[in-house]
């Protein structure tokens, strides 16, 4: 997921689908993990969160952004890690 004004011609070719609005939903961690076991992140205290990413972005997939990149952007905006995913998006035909 790359903003269209920052994308090079090569990046526009490798990320051919453009979206101008992406809705992100998920849960943001509010406390530390309760242990070191495999499901420790699922037991962490969290609160729900939702954001809208506005502005035209080039995405790698026709269904939307790569979820790894999307969760990194959402964690940066909301200020903490968590589980984030794409709820919906509006694709442009450019």
Descriptive account of the structure:
The protein contains 2 helices and 4 strands; from the N terminus they run E-H-E-E-H-E. With 94 residues, it is of the alpha+beta class. Strands 1-3-2-4 form a 4-stranded antiparallel sheet.
Quick overview:
Helix content is 19%, strand content 43%.
Q: How is the secondary structure organized here?
A:
Layout: E1 2-3, H1 9-14, E2 17-29, E3 46-59, H2 67-78, E4 82-92
Antiparallel strand pairs: 1-3, 2-3, 2-4
**First-last Cα distance:** 16 Å
Helix content: 10-25%
- Spatial strand arrangement across the major sheet: 1-3-2-4
Mean pLDDT over the full residue set:
92
Helix segment tally: 2
Which blocks of ≥5 consecutive residues have pLDDT under 50? none
What oligomerization state is this entry in?
single chain
What coarse outline follows from CA principal-axis ratios?
Answer: elongated
Strand segment count: 4
